[in-house]
Amino acid sequence: EIMSDIFDLKDLEEQIKKSLGLVEVIVVPGDSDEAPWVKKEMGRVTVQLMKRHLADEASKIVALTGGTTIAAVAEMMTPDSEMKETLFVPARGGLGEQVENQANTICATMATKAMGSYRLLHVPDQLSQDSYSSLMEEPKVKEILNLIRSANLVIHGIGEAKTMAERRGSSEEILQNLNEKQAVAEAFGYYFNKDGDIIHRVLTIGLQLEDVSNSKLVVAVAGGASKAQAISAYMKQGTSNVLITDEGAAKALLQLH
Ligand code: F6P
Known about the structure:
Elements: H1 2-20, E1 24-28, H2 36-54, E2 61-64, H3 68-75, H4 81-84, E3 87-90, H5 103-114, E4 117-118, H6 129-135, H7 139-149, E5 153-156, E6 159-160, H8 161-167, H9 172-180, E7 183-187, E8 190-193, E9 198-201, H10 209-212, E10 217-221, H11 228-236, E11 242-246, H12 247-256
Parallel strand pairs: 1-11, 2-3, 2-5, 3-4, 5-10, 10-11
Antiparallel strand pairs: 6-7, 7-8, 8-9
This protein binds 6-O-phosphono-beta-D-fructofuranose.
6-O-phosphono-beta-D-fructofuranose binds next to helix 3 and strand 7.
């Protein structure tokens, strides 16, 4: 029984890898919409993958996004020799998350658990074009931006568009725009329709989607059947090369394809 379950997951991984065109897919058992431990399990396998990848890298810089899934990755982090040399940085500035789900907080937690180091990016959430431009001129900001852009591993979440826009307390105008343009997915502060086209983005400094695709390994960690549509849409624009998900999302994903 257990052996056939493992076999089924391997089979799911292969099918998703093919249909989304990814380098690697890992599916953990269960559905994180229903059981909280499933998110921790995704966190645990993400930590394993991080260690495996960083072992071969000369410079070890990891950029992280916010959200409860990446917070679970931080929670499962453990120290070892690779991790001690790792620098953790937030991928982008404030995206309107609660403190515990902010990239900065997750970075500090993960670095502490890894016994590595971290740098933070202090940027207010709602930036006007003017403040954005002047912040970009700050030497301290430039310095950390360079570090962020040189990350060789990016670990990020994917969310359902409406859920994310509401969680961020977005304005009525933005909500309406997302609704009209049929946004289904969100990642890195960008919103996408079902074809993976960008239809809106949150103005903040840090990695822009173009920068993300220059990184060596970009790992999306997202599970729960409710995120299947979002994962499928986001993956269509092809920035990420690895997906760590759960059985619930994996099965629902295959029904969409
Ligand atoms: O706001 C940061 C972020 O990574 C989003 O880009 C993503 O949509 C969301 O968090 C995922 O959050 P969660 O893991 O809690 O579903």
